[in-house]
Amino acid sequence: MNGMSRFLAAIVGLCALALLPSQAIALDACLDDPNRAHELRVLDEAQVTDMMDSLDVIAVPERMHRMLANLVAASPRLRGGPAIHLLAFHDTELNAYAADHGLVILTSALWSEKENLSDDELAAVIAHELAHIEKRDSLKEACANLLRLKQPELRIEEARDRMGLEMLNPYSHLAREARRELHEQEHGADLRGIELLRSVGRNPQAMVSVLAKLHGSGTPGLNLLMGSTHPDLRERLERAQAAAQAVAPPAHVPGAGRRR
Ligand SMILES: [Zn+2]
Fold it and tell me: What number of H helices and E strands is found in the chain?
């Protein structure tokens, strides 16, 4: 690098550094704006209504309500409210979702005889979703997209549509950035979920085994072109495994520390 290009690189670097704080301030302003949280809630509720039209709502087993209450009590941020509810749909696919305003959506395959998940694994699914709610990951993603598109006044729904188009473009740097952030959110929710499992005396290793079960039957063919909103499974399992092993699990947990 010659003298002039070094000088230009330094200027570009300084400009980027100057932009970072203003980006962070704009992100915080969006996250703190109650209108934005409300806007997201309305969108989430519309999505839930659509799901109710196409899938049957079924009762969640009582023990899962107890698991939820137990995990919520372990989170200083969540136990202060608002209340978090479970909603379940009959579905043969293993899946779970979270809405920031306090809803964890589960599919009935999770407690089906066929899948045979342990209680620790079911708690791991709930813990992962609670971690997303705790961090308000959906709102963070929505606000980050508004800034990425450089249109902080746009409606979240419109920004989502525009980012959806970006995601179809394999050369879009906006899509690459958004995907990277979503992957980090998933890793973060896995790790926080492991902490929550540990704090209620459950086996943290259950996070690793249930992630393998949930994502082991995915359709990677589709993701080759479009890029997945979930991180590479192997990397995800390795990071979850490292976190699960980082501290020795409580001795009274049956099967603790066992590799699956
Ligand atoms: Zn997740």
Answer: 11, 4
Q: List pLDDT tens digits, range 197-256.
A: 999 999 999 999 999 999 875 543 333 333 456 678 889 999 999 999 986 554 444 433
Ligand 1 centroid–CA 112 distance in Å is 21
DSSP letters spanning 179-207: HHHHHHHHHHHHHHHHHHHHHTT--THHH
CA 257 to ligand 1 center in whole angstroms: 23
* C-alpha 4 – ligand 1 centre gap (Å): 46
Distance 222 CA to ligand 1 centre (A): 19
How many A from CA of 241 to the centre of ligand 1? 16
Does residue 92 form part of some domain?
yes
* Residue 219 within any structural domain of the chain: yes
pLDDT greater than 50 at residue 258: no
Task: Name the residue with tokens 């520390």.
Answer: 257
Residues with CB under 5 Å of ion ligand 1 are: 186, 189
C-alpha 186 to ligand 1 mean position (Å): 5
| Domain assignment present for 7 | no
What pTM was estimated for this model as a whole? Answer: 0.83
Contacting residues for 88 by C-beta, under 8 A, at least 6 apart:
57, 58, 59, 60, 105, 106, 107, 108
Within a domain: residue 14? Answer: no
Range of the structural domain that residue 220 is part of = 26-246
* Alpha carbon of 106 to ligand 1 centroid (Å): 12
Q: pLDDT, tens digit, for every residue of 114-141?
A: 999 999 999 999 999 999 999 999 999 9
